[in-house]
Structures are given as C-alpha cells and as structure tokens.
Amino acid sequence: MRFRLFAYATVAAASLVLAGCPLPEPVANAGPDQAVDECSNVVLKASSNDPGGYLATYKWTQTGGPKVAFKVSKKGVLTFVAPETDVRLALTFSLVVTDTFGRKSKPDTVIVTVDQIKFFGTATGSADDYTNLLTWFDQITPENSGKWGSVEATRDVMTWTALDAAYDFARTNGLPFKFHTLIWGQQQPGWIGALTPQEQLEEIEEWMAEVAARYPHIDLIDVVNEPLNAPAGYREALGGAGETGYDWVIKAFEMARHHFPNAKLILNEYNTLMLEQFTANYMTVVELLQERGLIDGIGEQAHFLERADVPVVATNLDTLASTGLPIYISEFDLNYADDARQANVMRDLFTVFWDHPAVAGITHWGYRQGAMWRTNAHLVRSDGTTRPAMDWIVCYMEGGGDSCTVPEYVPAGWQGTEFGVTLEAELYDEGQGVAALGNIVAYTDDGDWIAFKGVEFQAGWDTFWITYAKGNTDPGSISIFIDGMQGTPVLTVDLPPTGSWNSADTIEQPWAALTGSHDVYIRFNTAPGVANVDSVRFGKPQPPSDVNLLPDGGFESGVAGWSSWNGATLMTTTAQVRTGLQSMLATNRPNANQFAVYNLTSVVESDTTYAVSAWVFHTGTENQTVRLASKLACASASDTYPWLQNNTAVASNTWTQLSGNLAIPAGCTPTDVAIFLEGTAPGFDVYVDDVKVVPPNNNLITDGGFESGTAGWSSWNGSTLSATTTRARNGLQSLQATNRPNTSQFAVYNLTSAVDRNTTYAVSAWALHTAAANDTARLAAKIECSAATAPPGHNTYPWLQNNSAVVPNTWTQLSANLVIPDCDIVDVAIFFEGTTAGVDVYLDDISVQ
Questions:
Q1: Among the listed residues 147, 118, 636, 37, the one whose alpha carbon sits nearest the alpha carbon of residue 329
Q2: Which of 76, 475, 626, 834 would be 58's cystine partner, CB 3.0–4.6 Å?
Q3: Which stretch is the leader sequence (predicted)?
Q4: Could you tell me which of 155, 403, 426 has the C-alpha nearest to residue 307?
C-alpha cells in the first residue's frame, strides 16, 4: 500500500514537471518558542508540510546563544539539557527539511529562553536567625562574621565560630553560600594600619589563604566591598590607584582568583542605582575587572532606595546588565515603620529586580525585628508574624503576579509640638531628581523638588529654619510652595556656601504663620549642586531647659570626658577663668585640628535640637579663628561634621562666646555624636570655660518614646528588648520586652552621667503587659554612692512605684520621684521588674526630669 502511494506521488510530481509547473518546496516547522528553567530537559519536535513529495531528513542547527550538546532522533526530535546560568539566555535553533527529491525547505527558527533559577536569601547574624530561615529563604550571607575585623580582631587570633555556623548551615541544607567580605574599608582589623605596606600585603595574603583553606566550597565572594564609598585604608599595599585608578581593586581580585578558583568573584557597592552618575562611576571599576576576566558578578547592595525613582533604578540596572555579567541584589532592605508603605515600595522595587533577566538573586539583609542594622527594615515581627511586604514577596515568587496585593498606603502626615515641626529632608513623601543619602537630600539641581504631605501647622509658628551644607560657591536657593508648585512661592531662601559639603549651617527666616493641614513643596533653584539639605523646620523658638548634658562644663572637677583628636594636652588651670575657679587649657597643639572633643552619644536623642555654647580665650597676638563644630554619626548614614559657629575674628586675650544648635534628625539613631573646638592656628594656648549642651526640655532619657530604637536600654535578666510598632501609646513605636526568663530587671536605663547629686527628679513611664489577668509592674532604681559618702541607711535599690494590679492590655502610668542624695555618685539607673515571667511587656513615653 505504501509503495503504491509513493508511486502515485512520484507520478503526480513527474506530471507537474512535464506540465511545466514548479514543484512546491517542503515547509519546515520548528515548533513554538519555549521558556524553560536552567538544567531542565528541553524537547523540540520537528514537523513539516511537503505537498510535492516525501520528507527524507530533518536537519537541526544551533544558530544563537551558548553552544549546547543536543541529539536529534530519526523523526526529527531534538533534545538537550538547558545550561546552568546566572543570567537569562536565548538559544536559537534552525530547522531545515529535505524531501526525497533533494528539495530543501527554508529554515524555520525556534527560540528557547533559559531562565536562571533565582534565589531569595538573607543575612544571618545570630543563632536565632536559623530557626525559621528555610521558611522563606534559600541563600545565606553572614552579616558580620565574615568581615576581617570580626575574624581577626587580634592579630593571628582567628575567631571562626559564627562564620562556621553560617557555612555549615548552608552546606547542610544545600543553600548557596556567599562570603562577605575579603577587602573593605570598614570593620577591618585595627592593627593593620600600623603595619608597613609589605607587611599589610602579607597579612592580606594570609587572610585569603586562611579563608580558602577553611571554607573550600564557597559559592560566591564579595571580594572588595564598597570600593567607591569606603575604600580600604591599606589599599597602597595592593598597588594603590596606579595607572587605572583602581589598581588595588584589580590586585585584590587577582589574589582572590588564585585562592578561590571555583567561587564566583563579586564586586559589591551601595548607591549605584540611585542616579545615573553613580552607575557610571561603578561601571568604571566593573569594566576594568571585566577586561581582565577577574569578575563573575556585580553586587548592588540596594540599601537606601526607600525614596529612589523606580524608573531610574530600572534604567541603571539595564546599564549594569549591559556588561553581560549577572547582578546580585546583595543587601536589600527598606527601612519603614509603616507596614503599608514598606509593602508598596517593596512591590515596586522587588518587581524590577526579580523580573530582570540579569538579576541572579536577591539577598535581604536580615529579616527579624530587633535583629537588623536598620530598625524598621524587618520582614518578620518579633512574635513570628510576617509583615505585608513579606507576604507580597512570597506570593510573587510563587507566581501570583498581579493577584498579589499590598495594603493601601495613606501618608500619616507631619505633626509637631507647640514649638514646631521638623521635616527631615530625606524622609520626603514625593520628590524628583534628588538622592536621599543617609540623613540628607543631595544632588539637588535647578528644578528638582521634594514634598511633604499633610503638614499640620499651628498658630504662632512664625519662624522657618533650614539646615544644609554647601561646598561650592555657585549661587543657590530654595523656594517654599504651599499645596502645589503653581504660582508664586511663599518664601525663597538664598543658601550661601558653608565651607564644605560636610559642614552644615542653619539659616533662620521669618515665616507667615499658617494653620491647618497643608502640603509643603521645596524647589531647588539656580544652578547644579544647590545644597545638601538636612532638614527644614516651621515653628517658634523653643525655650531651653536648665539641664546641661555636660556634668562639669565649668571644669571645676577636672577635664573628665574631654579628649583631643590632634594630640593636644588638656588640663585644668586657674590662669584664665571666666567663672568659677578653673577653666580647661589646651596646650601643645600641633595643628589647627580638633583640640578639645566631648562625646555626647549616650545622652542625646533623635529628633532633638540642642543649644550648644562655649566660651574661649586664646593667647595669640592677633585675631584668630575658633570654630565650634560637631560630629554626627547615625546608624544608617555617612558621618557628617556640622559647624555650629565659625568665628574667624576672635580677639586675643578676651573671653568670647561661641554658640549654635546641634540638631539630631528624626531618622537618626545616634552612633557617635560629639562637639569639638578647632580651627585655631597652633603655637599658642586656648582656654575653654562654661561649656553647655542644653536640651529643649528636661527629659534625661534619650528617646523616651523609642521612635529611633532602644539605644541606651539593656536588660539585667537576659530579656530581649526591641522597638516595635505592635503597641505604641504615642508615636509609632514602643519598647517591647520578650523572652523574659523571670521577674527580675528586664529593662534598665543608666543615668549616671546625667544626674546631679542632692537633686530630685520626676520619673514617669507607661507600661502595658499581655498577661491574662492583673499583674505587677514595678518602677525601681539603682542609686549607688561611694562607700565613703553614702548616707546612713542608704537604700541602693529603692522601689519608686510598685503597682501590683496593672490591668492587662491597657497602658498604665507609673510615676514617682527619684531622689539622689548628697553623695559621690557611682552608678544610677532606673529599671522595670516584677511582671510574671513569659509575659511580654511594652514601655513608652518614659521621662526623667
């Protein structure tokens, strides 16, 4: 039967030829395009249509993409295994069919898109991070335990315990493990700076060799971390800038390639996607490494993108992807206390990252409340429940797409006190063309703007302040608009230079008072680089308290707490005194740098402005500069050094007052705050007296509302303390005490440096517990005097208030007097205790005045 059909077809074809009709060509069909995952089995089935004869052969050819080994059956079925990849690949195959008369079809093409299997990982910092990690994550980066300063804080003494735990957990559970980090300008051993360059290079070589020997199965390595923003202080040992400008980075990668031949080598940096110029700077280093075949992936930390322009981020991500290298979103987090706002921004950014063909994976930098470097960036609350941002991520990664939803975000608005409201620039609600960097808005050019929605103005707010830094001499100004940028601005303020981009000044202007809720728009004018803006404030001058945060600003007892950053000698003296019996003398000053420094970290709080003043006297023969300045370091921002007052004409042998405001932004968790004096030419002595740092009220507790975290608080019984949005009496957060093993002191605040002898303070606190019935909440104190001066019968641990019937799930106030006797103070603290073990306790609105 088959022979007859064949003969019939042959005769028919012959008849067409004899009749002068061309035979139709066979038609190849390679099948529809496909999308597959890496390492999956791929099947392409050939088919055809040949009206003029029988098909004889199928010929497949790969015409595009990385070459793969494939097989073709007699029936034209092509099979292969999709290659392993870190970026999306397009493999192109062409099919040609030939019939029994030797006629060939035109080629038909099919495209097989190979998607990488992306990971969603996290950074681990403690044993608790591993408990539920596998519920959400499938990759691990040790947060701190792989940093050289953590491993080898003491030369030749290696501490591997926490790093071993991360590595072993990853290996046991089959998770990709990324080592973080080999070379970084921060968290490096303190001792390395004292070595010669040759010794430093030998230590770097030893460091890499030790890591390679101990962890032979590292998958990915951050070889150099933050080469642009935090270059290693010992980079000269690696070749310094050299001919390329980044020879030291190239040398580090060459060494890493030698020690870790099987690991993927990554360059890691932050602020690379926010603005085009940041991306261009990063590309310079990436391309130098790529030209030499030294880099296997690009790390983008993705910190500080809370207010980034998402389309700009996407465009800059495409620029990095143009290298052909995989991109690793390596340290992603969004620091929002508001669940809805975090979820909305997470959706917008995560979608860009996860869907991008060059992104190989995303690592969220920690995930548990109270266990992250940024207070409000957690995805899982301390009670184990997930925030909406995490719920959306899980839904989206499981393929939910547009069906995955987030809560509607409604801006909370901006409320202040009777004295005014401070708008932190980097916390703007809307904006265009600017970069929110740490605690400032930067890269402000003509026409850029930011807006704050729903600012509640009060009668009597007749003053406007702006705190900014400007390092250029080009003209610049801001204009303030109310409820839209149409029409004439209500205020325009010129911004003169401040000396440098890290030296801040505050300008005060009269303001036409408003009432009610209004949207505030701030437009930048005139030229590129208008200013780095820290904050603006609307209000009225706030009367200072009579509290001085310096226990002995008159130096009657000595110079305790003071130090010198330039090696000057500090001592008390009676030679020159403004008030009292003594002043502080700064002598042997080698240069004009910071000769007298006082650290305030433990006594200042977020969202507070302090009035600072000091009296100075110098022995020069002519007028001199004396500068009162400060250092402000926040947990999630670069250090800044605002000038409080720079007097360039201080008369000699005369007491002159310097004064200014030290402003701690609302979004700042203070990690290092100090005031200092500098600027005076060396060669003569400077005297200092009557130094004051005065808060706007009498509360000795740093952030008694816990809006910036739990800094200054500790537990004597091992309880876990964290700031939480779950319960708050006022503001957005309160302190939560969990894992309480007993009824002992679960929350303690030390007041030793803030209280005075023979003084009575009013203490107030609000407490809430989650027990099923009434329970005890006790406010108590520790008042330790020196043995020689303690009054007879002195009680070192007095109870201030013991309420044994606090109603559950209800905020209850505890208040009493803290009486400091007339003694030499050794240790003073307030603390909370007495509540049944295992019950969570919340504290808020704590004050000591």
A1: 118
A2: 76
A3: 1-19
A4: 426
